[in-house]
């Protein structure tokens, strides 16, 4: 997900630099969402991994 967030951020920056403000803003919005979704999923999986590892071992 972080890879896609970076791709959309680059698309947004390029579109914004070329004057396509609507497309650039939308791409940056998608990039922000994907970044935070990826971070939240990573944290949840980390916490689950730590709690399950303690119960198994």
Q: What brief labels describe this structure?
A:
single chain; 57 residues; mainly alpha; 0% strand; transmembrane helix; membrane; cell membrane; DUF1328; UPF0391 membrane protein CEE60_03280
Write the layout of secondary structure elements.
Layout: H1 2-17, H2 21-56
Describe the structure.
The two termini are 31 Å apart. Helices cover 91% and strands 0% of the residues. It has one domain. By secondary structure, the chain is mainly α. Keywords: Cell membrane, Membrane, Transmembrane, Transmembrane helix. InterPro entries: DUF1328.
Q: Indicate the percent of residues in helices.
A: over 70%
Poorly predicted tracts of residues: none
The H-and-E topology, N to C, reads as HH
Give the number of DSSP strands: 0
Strand content: under 5%
Cα(first) to Cα(last) distance is 31 Å
Structural class: mainly alpha
Number of individual domains: 1
- Please state the average pLDDT score: 90
Output the number of helix runs: 2
Give a quick account of the main beta sheet: strands, pairing sense, barrel closure: none
User: What kind of assembly state do the chains in view correspond to?
Assistant: single chain
Shape: rod-shaped
C-alpha-based Rg, rounded? 17 Å
Family: Belongs to the UPF0391 family.
Organism: Stenotrophomonas maltophilia (Pseudomonas maltophilia)
Pfam families: DUF1328
GO cellular component, one term: plasma membrane
């Amino acid at each position: 997900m972080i890879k896609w967030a970076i791709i959309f951020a680059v698309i947004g920056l390029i579109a914004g630099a070329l004057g396509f403000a609507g497309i650039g803003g939308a791409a940056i919005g998608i990039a922000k969402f994907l970044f935070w979704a990826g971070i939240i999923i990573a944290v949840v999986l980390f916490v689950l991994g730590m709690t399950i590892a303690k119960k198994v071992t």
